[in-house]
Amino acid sequence: MSEPTGTAPAEAGPDRRAERAAARRARTLRGQGIAAASTIVVLGGLAALTLTRPGWPVFRDSFFDLEQFGDSFPRIAEAFWLDIRVFMIVEVVVLVLGLAVALVRTVKAPAMFPLRILAVVYTDVFRGIPTVLLVYLVGFGVPAIALGETESGSRPLDWLPTEPVVLGGIALALSYGAYVAEVYRAGINSIHRGQRDAALAVGLTERQALRHVIVPQAVRRVGPPLLNDFIALQKDVALIAIIGVTGEAFRVAQTETAASFNYTPLVAAALLYLCITIPLARLLDRYGLGGQTR
Q1: What is the sign, positive or negative, of the torsion defined by CA atoms of 97, 103, 104, 106?
Q2: How many helices and strands in the chain, by DSSP H and E?
Q3: Which terminus in the chain has less CB density within 10 A, N or C?
């Protein structure tokens, strides 16, 4: 009687898996090679097209002068610290203000109706006015009100702030607070009503259900769009320069440009903003696409 030959299929299994793994590696390597080749072709073509233009030397000397960059960068970097401080403070104010407005618009109690009307008006007005125009209105309008005298010579509103950096921060907070309020409200409305009903069923009040169940879920859900707004806010901090904030990075870069008739300081300021916005954008990609998918 002959021996059974049942070992052949068992040996064939690992061979087929090895072949599939080798085929996948080959496809991966082929894809990486195609990607690298296409990148070299595209970037090389763009570089060749740019560097061979007759106006490239003039453009290079006007925007990428290394000597001018090294001379102006320390002063611009020192001024950029003001941008970071304004951004951090305004960001905290915007988070609190936006959440408060969103909660007012979400709560349906009859006694809250006047506040809901005010919240709707605030959102519509400050979201509809361009941020640069709002910075102008607050930056020049508030000092005019604060320093205005009555017929008796008194100044009843002299307690209002008149510092340009403070007024610029207030304008940014008002503008972005309206946007963030709508982001929060969308997150709160996206929570299924069953979450509220379940919270009430276990004995929580309406306020407790909102605080402990609905708002925490909504905040986690709207993390990516909030981060996107803060990337835009970091860039718009430069707008406070238009109302006379002399220590801001963009204004310092403008001064350096006017003194040297060279645009390299503006490029230096742009690089500083990129050092903040690009890491935030990558964090948004990771958090929005990978970390908050459930």
Answers
A1: positive
A2: 12, 0
A3: N
